[in-house]
Specification:
By secondary structure, this protein is of the alpha/beta class. It is about 30% helix and about 15% strand.
Length: about 210
């Protein structure tokens, strides 16, 4: 029996103007200094937590510090020959935006069991918050295009998300009434060590 496939796309940053990216490099914290503790994240144990019956893909998407949609699209599609029908696709933050945009504009050559879209910014709300998502943008009116692209859609968000306010999830739910809104109170931007609730949701899909 074939293993259940899960494909996870991480977050990142993207800038419309290169000068904004350069400024970000000049001012953002350095996270990989010698002796610094890198915080454990749930993604590091996802394959172990799901178990031997699952095949988990967690590709490093190109240049996540200044991602370009076309580059991510190429790399995502490079994996298609390895993906089977009924794959579960999970995206977080910019990764979720990527999946929204991809399936607004494209079909996949395989059947998608579920799209799990976590902590996704909604482009129409970004201007007010002065955040940049480069060329990963799309119109809210086009979001319902993804409805037919997966057997089920989960919009997942935490009320205490300090990067993407919970309001974004509520607006996605309005645009996708068929989707299930999964709400947490204390998972912030899903930068947490463990996320057993997601593991159980993925297992329940099988």
């Amino acid at each position: 029996m074939a293993k259940q496939q899960v494909f996870y796309i991480h977050g990142g940053e993207s800038y419309e103007n290169h000068v904004d990216y350069l400024e970000r490099l000049k001012n953002k914290d350095i996270w990989d200094l010698p002796g610094s503790d890198s915080a454990k994240k749930w993604t590091s144990t996802l394959a172990i937590d799901l178990g031997a019956d699952y095949e988990v893909f967690m590709p490093m998407m190109p240049n996540k510090q200044n991602a370009k949609y076309q580059e991510w699209k190429i790399w995502f599609e490079r994996h298609f020959e390895h993906l089977n029908d009924d794959v579960v696709l999970v995206g977080c933050s910019l990764g979720a935006m990527f999946l929204y945009k991809y399936f607004i504009e494209n079909d996949a050559p395989f059947r998608v069991k579920s799209l799990i879209l976590m902590a996704a910014p909604l482009p129409e709300l970004l201007a007010a918050e002065e955040r940049d998502s480069g060329d990963f943008l799309y119109k809210t009116a086009d979001v319902p295009n993804i409805t037919t692209k997966a057997e089920s859609i989960l919009v997942v968000h935490s009320k205490d998300d300090f990067l993407v306010p919970y309001e974004h999830a509520l607006k996605y739910k309005v645009a996708l009434p068929q989707a299930e809104l999964v709400t947490f109170d204390d998972k912030n931007h899903f930068l947490v060590a463990e996320l057993p609730e997601l593991v159980e949701r993925i297992k329940a899909l099988a």
